[in-house]
Amino acid sequence: MKRLMLIGITVAALAGVAAAAPVSVEIATEPGLNVTAPQKWLQLFAEIGQTGVRIRGMRAGERPRLEELGGSRRVVGVLTRRGDLLLPGGKFRQRDRAALADYFDRVAKDGAEGVEAPRGRFDLTEKQFRTAYDALSEPLGFATKDQPPRAVVERVRDRLPIALEIDRAAERTLNNAGPLAEDLEPLTVGAALAVMLARDGLALTPEHPRGGEVRLRVAVAGDVADSWPVGYDPPASPRETAPVLFEFLSVEVEGFTLTEALDAITPRLGGLPVYWDHASIAEAGVDPASTQVRFERKRTYYKRLIDKLVFQARLKSRLRVDEAGTAFLWIGR
Questions:
Q1: Alpha-carbon distances of 3 from 7, 165, 185, rounded to whole Å
Q2: What one-character-per-residue DSSP string does 69-132 give?
Q3: What residues contact residue 58 under an 8 Å CB cut-off, 6+ apart?
Q4: Are the C-beta atoms of 227 and 153 separated by less than 8 Å?
Q5: What does the pLDDT look like over 134-174, one tens digit per residue?
Q6: Any idea what the Cα angle at residue 28 is, between residues 39 and 86, rounded to 5°?
Q7: How far apart are CA 312 and CA 304, in angstroms?
Q8: pTM
C-alpha cells in the first residue's frame, strides 16, 4: 500500500511539470555596432542550442520584450553598440555562455515570470512565495503531543494544497524520531512544522522547480540555504501582542529546575503557548530538566520572571507570532 501511494505522488509531481515552450529569438542591433559582432552572437546562440535566431536593425524606440504566442514564446533583444545583449530581465556579454543558456531554459519553462519577476527569500517570486505562505498559514488543527513527527508530517501532507516532499536523509531522521513532548495545535502549519522539525535538525523550505509548481521540502537543515522560520517578530509591541506576559504577580521560586518552573508558570499564561528550541539548547550543552533556578520573593510580571529564569540556564525567551498572528514564546539560545 505504501509503495502504491509513493508512486501516485511521483506521477502527480511529474504531471505538474510543464513542457518547455519553443522560444524564437530576434535581435535588434543598435547603429554603430561592430560588423563582426552579429556573427559572433549567432555562433554563441548555436553553441547553446538556440537556432533560428534572426538579427536585424533596430527600430525607433525598440526595447527588449518577451511575447507569449500561444504555445510558443518570442524574445526580442537589443544588441548595443558596445556589444552587450539586452534581454527582458537580463544583460549578457559573449563570455556569459552558461548564463545565457540558463536564461533561455527559464524562458522556455517559466516564461516571463522566470526571468522578469523580482525574486526574494527562497529565490521565489512574490506570487510563488504567496502560494507557499498561504498554504502554511492554515491552522494545524490537531493535537501533536505524544505523536511521532513522521505521523504529523503525513497528516499535514494529506491536507496541504501544494505538494510536500521529504528528502531521503530527512526521512530516515523522521522515522527514528521520538514522540513530541509539546502540543503544536495552537499554531499554523508553517510554524508548527518549523518548531517540530527544528528539534531533530530538520528544516522546511519552499521551492519552485523550473517548469513546475511551488512545493514544500523537508530536508536536513544543513542541506538547505534557508528554512521556513519559527514564527516572526510581532508587528505590534510585546505588551499589545501578549498582554498576559505583563500581568503582575507576587512570586518566589526555590528548589525547582527550569523545566519544572516553566511547567508551573505556563498554565497561568492564559493559553499562550511556550515551546523549546531543543536543538539549540542541546548544542549549548544545557539541560533545562536538571538546571536549578531560583527567584527571590518579589512582585514582578510574567515576562520578566520567565526571562530571569531562563537566563540562569544561559537561554532567552523570544515572543513570536505565527503566520496567522498567534503569539507564542520560543525559548532557546
A1: 6, 15, 30
A2: ETTEEEEEEEE-TTS-EEETTEEE-TT-HHHHHHHHHHHHHHHHHHHTS-B-GGG-BHHHHHHH
A3: 28, 29, 30, 31, 78
A4: no
A5: 999 999 999 999 999 999 999 999 999 999 999 999 999 99
A6: 90
A7: 13
A8: 0.84
